[in-house]
Every structure is written in C-alpha cells, then in structure tokens.
Write a structure and sequence with these properties.
The complex is a heterodimer of chains A (231) and B (232). Chain A has 231 residues and is mostly helical. In chain A, 82% of the residues lie in helices and 0% in strands. In chain A, helix 1 packs across helix 5. Chain A starts with a helix and ends with a helix. By secondary structure, chain B is of the alpha/beta class. Chain B is 35% helix and 25% strand. In chain B, the strands form two sheets. Chain B has a six-stranded mixed sheet with strand order 5-6-7-3-8-9, sandwiched between helices. In chain B, 45% of the residues are buried. The chains are: A mainly alpha (231), B alpha/beta (232). Chains A and B meet through helix 1 and helix 4 of A and helix 2 of B.
Chain lengths: 231, 232
C-alpha cells in the first residue's frame, strides 16, 4: 500500500511541473466551455451538450491515453521504473499508483465537464460513472502502449494513432451511421451513447467499457511480459 | 557474501559472460574491473535480478530490499527536486523522511535539497543517485562506475563516502574501468575481459604476481599484459 501511495504522490507532484501533461487536463474542458457558451447555446440546431460530449470523449480517449503512455514511457526510458521495481514495487503497484492518480485527475476533469454540461443530478451520476470507467480503460491502454515503447518518442508514435482512433471515432460516429455501428465496441463511444440519451440503462455501456478494460489489462500484462525491465 | 559460480550469459549468439566465478566477502569493497563491453554491467544486472543467467549459480547474501543500486542511468525524476526524489523511496521503504535529508547530507547535497534534478550537473546527479542507493542503509551496495565522468574532487568525495559505507558495515560491489580507482579503493578485485575473469585477488598481490609493482601497484599494466588491450 505504501508503494502505491508513494507513486501516487510522485505523480501528483510531477504533473504540476509537467505542463505538457497538465494542459491535457485543462484545455479540453476549456474548449468545451467556450464552444458551449458561444456556439451551442446560441444555436437551436445544435444539442446544448454536444461539445461537452465531444470533448469529454476526446479527453477520455485521446488525452488520457497520451498522458499515461507518455509518463510510463518516460519512466522506462530514464530507467526510473527499474529502480522502483528493485525497491520492491511490483508492476501492478506501479500501475495502480500511477493510474490511480490519473483516474483521480480524470475524475476531477469529468466533474468540470458535467458542470459545463449543466446536467441534472442523476444525469451527472450516469455521466461520471461512464467517464470514470472510460478513464480507467484509457489509462490501462496508455500504460500498455507506454510499456511497449522504447522511449517517449516511440510512445507518441504508437500512442497518437491509437489515441486519435479512440478519441475521435465518437465524434465521427455522430455524423456517420456506419462508423457509429463499428464504434459500438469502443469505450469512448459509450460516453456518446449515455450522454445523448440519459434514459438508457447504464448496464450495456458499462459492460462494454469493462470488456475494453479486460482487453487492455491483458495487453498490459503481455507488454510487461515481453518487455519486462529491459526498457 | 556475494558469490558467482560458473555463470554464463548469452545474448543471441554472443556469449557475454563465460563461466564467471568470484566471491566478494562481507564488509569489503569488491571491484570488478574491465573496459567498456567487458560484461561488468551484465554481472550487476544478474546479481540484482534484472537479468537471468543462462547457467551457473549466484547469490548476494541479502534480500533485494537490503541492497542499494547505482547504475550508469540514474533513473532520477528530473522535474522533482532532490529531497522529493529521495522521499519517494523513503516512503516505499517505509523509513522516516528525515532520512532523505541525512542521505543528502552524506553526499554533500544538503544545500541543494530543493534544487530540481534537471538543473543539476552530472556530478550532483551522481551524488543524488548515490544518496538514493544508501538511503535505506543497505547491507550490499552495487555501484556501476560510480565516479565515471566526474571531476577529481567530486570523485574523491565519492570514494571517501564509499569507504565510510564499508567501514560502517556495508559490502560494496563496484565496477570500474579506472585501475587507479580500484587500487585506491578496493580490498579485492577481479579483472574482466570479454566476459571472462582473467585474474582476481588483492590489488597489491596481483601486481606483485605480475611484477607490476613500481612505485605504486600498477593494475593497468597487469591488465594490458593479460589481455593485450589498453584501457581508454
């Protein structure tokens, strides 16, 4: 437990000194706020929370995958992870400590999205449920990408296309039915599904997100087995 | 304390360690000497369980948590300051955080406790990496080229600290390609060339065996005689 706490605190201190990552948690809610206030609220043809949904999906997918993969690839590249593991930290403690912080930070950002979306109480709970599980999926996916990457540059090369696919597919799905069908298996699309109709049951979207988490955890385990501490 | 017996390690078709056998006794400074690429870091990686040997046996006489490690890559968190870097490990080891300041004082970095790692010189970073290695007062210390690339004054400071650690009961296993450093610091050395131990013993005795004692024991001459290779 103390290892997880130590890594959690390290991430918390590090993020405030790492503007490249910090900005990912700020910029998308800011864009959602501006677009909602300036465009959506003055245009009856646009759903009032369209930009919130869009930016939240991009944040959960793209932002967090990029952040998690970058941080883990950096720890591998600089051999910091090696020293942690020699000090007795297991890979899963590292993942929980690092991921736990990003989950908390992602939850805070999700609350901001919910406030911008001006959701009712039950809608907010549903939104947070799908965002938090989606955030967890993104972090594990990012961790697997980070673990597979030799360095931060490689993590960007590998992570960016993946992040673009998971982050932007829900946006494209809004305008294209075929993409919407394919996107049904993606955790980020479930944010769209829930926010577009808060009356739908959460069971199916959560099940899809859980399935994504299982697949990504398996990927992380494979990546760790393949790469280990070699970096 | 630290034993390796008939250890073989291959990377693909290349044999990097060939039947390596040595023993480092408790409370001594054991030096593994050889040029770059001789296999020194591979031996440390095997002893610290970062790599598996293909065959042979080895033990370090301590649990992994009772070991300290300093590698060529320092693994420091560059955006955090010195004390924050050490506090992470103090928390992991479950030791009080004031030990971080003590460790910084031991390596002469107490004035730089709040300095970010990315604003520090190579010598300071190496001292911080050493502080992290000794933070939990390990029984066994593995130091990979601890004074490599440092100015003479900083190197002397690190040598003094290593000697103090040994005097206080730690067993130190260090690698170096600096023969002078080995003669000054080590109680026992093993000379490694192309993955093989070509000689081992007390530095002065090795030099005597090979008629390499001039005004000071000259391990470098022994190495060149045995391998034909001149150290850079």
């Amino acid at each position: 437990m103390r290892s997880i706490k130590a890594i959690f605190i390290k991430q918390a201190k590090d993020i405030f000194k790492n503007p490249m990552v910090l900005v990912l948690f700020i910029i998308l809610p800011v864009v959602a706020l501006i677009m909602t206030q300036l465009v959506a609220k003055s245009n009856d043809d646009i759903p009032s929370n369209m930009f919130v949904t869009m930016m939240a999906a991009i944040f959960a997918g793209m932002g967090l995958v990029t952040a998690a993969s970058g941080v883990i690839a950096e720890d591998i590249e600089r051999k910091s992870l090696r020293f942690l593991i020699i000090a007795g930290v297991t890979p899963y403690q590292y993942l929980i400590g690092t991921g736990g912080f990003y989950l908390l930070a992602g939850t805070a950002t999700s609350v901001v999205f919910a406030l911008i979306g001006d959701f009712a109480f039950t809608e907010t709970l549903k939104f947070l449920a799908i965002m938090i599980t989606g955030t967890a999926a993104s972090i594990i996916l990012g961790a697997a990408i980070g673990m597979l990457s030799k360095n931060q540059q490689a993590a960007t090369s590998l992570g960016m296309p993946v992040a673009v696919i998971v982050g932007f597919t829900p946006m494209i799905a809004t305008f294209n039915e075929t993409v919407a069908k394919v996107a049904g298996v993606l955790y980020t699309q479930q944010i769209n599904v829930v926010v577009n109709d808060f009356s739908v049951s959460l069971a199916r979207p959560l099940l899809i997100v859980a399935a994504n988490i299982v697949v990504f955890t398996f990927l992380f385990a494979l990546a760790y087995k393949k790469k280990g501490l070699k970096g | 304390m630290i034993k390796m017996s008939q250890v073989v390690k291959r990377f693909g078709a290349q044999t990097v360690l060939s039947e390596v056998t040595f023993e480092a006794k408790e409370r001594e400074i054991f030096g593994l000497l050889g040029p770059s690429g001789a296999g020194k870091t591979t031996i440390i990686n095997i002893l610290t369980k970062q790599l598996d040997a293909d065959s042979g046996s080895y033990s370090i006489g301590a649990k992994m948590l009772e070991t300290g490690l300093m590698l060529d890559a320092d693994g420091l968190y560059v955006r955090l300051n010195c004390v924050e870097n050490l506090n992470i490990f103090a928390d992991i080891y479950g030791i009080p955080r004031y030990k971080s300041l003590e460790a910084l004082k031991n390596v002469g970095l107490e004035e730089s406790a709040k300095k970010a790692v990315n604003a520090m010189s190579k010598g300071m970073r190496q001292r911080l990496a050493l502080a992290r290695a000794i933070l939990h007062e390990p029984k066994v210390l593995f130091l990979d080229e601890p004074a490599s690339g440092l100015d003479p004054a900083t190197a002397r400071g690190i040598h003094k600290l290593i000697q103090n650690l040994c005097d206080n009961g730690a067993t130190v296993f260090l690698t170096t390609h600096n023969m002078e450093e080995a003669v000054k610091l080590c109680n026992y050395v093993a000379l490694l060339h192309k993955g093989k131990i070509v000689e081992q013993g007390v530095p002065a005795e090795i030099c005597e065996r090979h008629n390499a004692v001039k005004t000071v024991p000259d391990l470098e001459a022994v190495f060149i005689k045995l391998t034909g290779v001149e150290l850079e």
